[in-house]
Amino acid sequence: MHRTKKEQEIIDGLKPVCICKGIKARVFQERVKAGMITVEELKKATGAGSGSCKGERCTPRIREVLEKYGHSGDLKDKVR
User: Fold this and answer.
1) The domain 5-79 is classified under which CATH number: 1.10.10.60, 1.10.10.1100, 3.10.180.10, 2.60.40.1080?
2) What residues does each domain of the chain span?
């Protein structure tokens, strides 16, 4: 079964990024589309990284979301 791009986007959006806080990928995707392009901005806006693991599990996943949209997640992206 082949999925459309929209169907795949929905499925990807349901994947957990921050397990401690139960935050799904779509939450991060929406914020990236709204202009948040650093890991710190996304953590502050969503509460990710404030759970029991202190960001050890979600930080790499947040970076993956940012990379999907062409950002490294570092402050230097914001300066450009």
Assistant:
1) 1.10.10.1100
2) 5-79
